[in-house]
Structures are given as structure tokens and as C-alpha cells.
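Why do we care about 3D structure at all? Because function follows from shape, and shape follows, mostly, from sequence. That is the central idea of this module. The next example makes it concrete: a single protein chain, its amino acid sequence, and then its structure expressed as C-alpha cells.
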Amino acid sequence: MNLDTKTGRMAISCGAVAVALIVWQLAGTYGGLFWLLPPSEILAATWHETVNGALPQAAGQTLLIALVGVVVGSALGVFIGALMGHYEAWNAVLDPLVKIGFAAPLVMLVPVISIYFGMGTGAKIAFTVLFCIFIVIINTAAGLREVPDEVLEMARAFEVTPRAMMFRILIPWSGPYILTGMRMSVGRSIQGALIADLFLRAEGMGLYMISAGSSFQLDNLYAAVLVLTVLGAAVMSLAKAGEVRLLAWRAA
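And the structure:
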């Protein structure tokens, strides 16, 4: 098998996944470990909880928080990142704060967020925005700094206005960086929304997982993890496809 081809690599990957699932099934069935459920039981629980509507309802609530959070976080992230990437003064002021925010464990801010926003939807959106925004800021600022000096000098020679400079030159030129940051923030938005569900008012997938864990329904708990994993992978794939489509003009 030629591993240099896409088909060969995909075959190897599928084979590795199949072997892992078989080993997992055997270990879960005959291993005698109550916490290691076989994939067949997890899939059965996922199907049952999907048909009765429990998982779709919980996932829908969490995904709505993630969607609003990633939209707001991406918009603010591009705006702040553009300021940092184009203006040295803004970069000097904001860069330390962005680095601290990106490196800090954001879970520790949950009590602070609950003081200002309460425990409901507003607080969850605010937390999800924090979870998304920093990666967009960093990528946007990095993209604007990569614009060649020759392009900027030519724009100044033609007396391009600051507004046109930003929206017709800097932002389009930085598109790959910005869209990569947005794609990464999509995955982080689901994580942020789930953490918010767990640590603020329990709703959505957070409440579902807490209920399943407290009643020792491990099959339902694993089903929730499976659904979140599949949703995260699907959303990231859609974001990647959108990124490729939006950047097609650069290859033309």
C-alpha cells in the first residue's frame, strides 16, 4: 500500500481506528472493569437518548451558547487584533493583557463573571466569549504584521484612506490568519459553553452530564461525551471547509 497517497493514508487511519474499537470492545466486555463500557453499549445509549430527545435538547442549548459566544468573540477579536497589529501604541497597551488572558486558566474567572452577569445565559455567553476571543486576537494581530512593507508603501503612495487601508488591504491580506483563528475559536466555543454549563447554572449538556454522573448512568455519560466529540469534529470540519472556500480567491 502506497502511504504517499491520500487513499493509502486514509486506509491506514481507518484500520487503526477499527483495531482500537475492537480492542476496546473486548476489554469492555471481558475486562471486568465497570467504568470501561464497550462501544456497543455507548452507541446503544446514544441512540436511545437521541430518539427520546434528551440529547438533542441538551446539545441544542449548549450549541446555542457556543454559537453566540463564537460570533461575538470573533467580531471583538478581529477588531482588537486589528488595532494591535496596525497601531504600535495599541499593541503596547493590549499585548500584555492578551498574553495574560490567553495563558490564564479561565475557569478561575467564573466567580467574577457570576458577580457581574449572574448565573444565567448572559454569564455563559460572556465566559464563552472569553474562551474564544484571545486566539482570534493573536492570529489577527499576527496576520496584520505579516503584510509586506511594499504593499503598505504603495497604499500610502496612492493616498489610501485609513479606512480603506484597513478594510481593503490589511484585513483581506490577513485573511488566512484571521480565518484560522476563527476556526480554532469554534472548537474552543464548545468547550467554553460546556464549562459554563457545568460551573454556572446547570443547563444543556452540563446538566445532562451531571445528572448522568450522579446517578451512575455511565452509558449516558459516555453518550454525552461521544455526542460532544462528534459535534466538535463536525463543526471544525465545516469551519475548515468554509475557510478553504473563502480563501479560494488567493489561489486564483
